[in-house]
Amino acid sequence: MILPDRFAVLADIHGNADALRAVLKDIDAQGISTVLNLGDMFSGPLAAGETWALLRDRAFPTVRGNHDRYLIEQRPEEMQPSDRAAHDDLPPEALDWLRNLPVVLELDEALLCHATPRDDQTYWLEDVSAEGHVHPAPRASVATRLGAVTQPLILCAHTHLPRIARLRGQLIVNPGSVGCPGYSDTHPVPHVVQTGTPDACYALLTRAGARWQVTHRHVPYDSTRMAALARARGREDWADAVTKGWLTQ
Fold it and tell me: What is the secondary structure of 20-39 as a DSSP string?
């Protein structure tokens, strides 16, 4: 696959069908035909089935995320609540699709992965302190995670935080999260990530000579229905995240 001079990157939809609709409408309005998807499409107490219906016919080049992996590797009774809610809402064809997705997708000038090429749970551009504070990773850590990757463009996700970094002549882009602007996690230690905005987020890349210009687009949308679905499943944390971009602490 040869990248066009202008394309979009999205990630971490997490079952938020209304946020995905808003992003796809924004992408379509700009006449962009190439969209790359970095995974974690469904897990969450929202609308996994609707999200699958939106993605099914688009045929975006896609890599599998860690929560996508949980949906196909774990038995339903072993899943955490967000994964179980998504699993129960998805048809078998969606799970079969996940099973056949690559973990890493290498193009001539780009590498796509959900987190890092070697681990779908490791933050690439951020670190978490022992006290649970999320902060930008130092240059040496980012370079170590590059390893032997030679592509000039690296597309990763997982933290839900829109960011870019340039080093060694390479550009690393995290497009942010389409549908989940805040979450708590226990890996590697308990911590919270929150973007501070409920807007749906994705990245637009435009070729500028030998480099890429990156624009993170924050798309407002009505999150009322998604918040109601979360509350109906007893997930006030998700309702707060999609309506505020912050988690109640």
Answer: HHHHHHHHHHTT---EEE-S
**Residue 249: pLDDT above 80?**
no
Which tokens is 134 given? 């999320």
> Which residues, at least 6 apart from 123, have a Cβ–Cβ distance to it below 8 Å?
115, 134, 137, 158, 159
Please spell the DSSP secondary structure of 95-142, one letter per residue: HHHHHTS-SEEE-SSEEEESS-SS-TTS-SSEEE-TTS-EEEPPHHHH
- The token pair that represents 178 in the structure block: 């389409």
Residues 72/95, Cβ–Cβ less than 8 Å: yes
pLDDT confidence tier of residue 86, bands split at 50, 70 and 90: very high
Q: What confidence score (pLDDT) does residue 248 get?
A: 63
> What is the token pair recorded at 128?
């978490």
Confidence check: pLDDT of 71 > 60: yes
Span 199-240, pLDDT tens digits: 999 999 999 999 999 999 999 999 999 999 999 999 999 999
What is the number of residues in the chain?
A: 249
* Nearest to 16, CA basis, from 38, 42, 37: 42
User: Residue 173 has which token pair?
Assistant: 């882009």
Q: Which residue has the tokens 């969450």?
A: 44
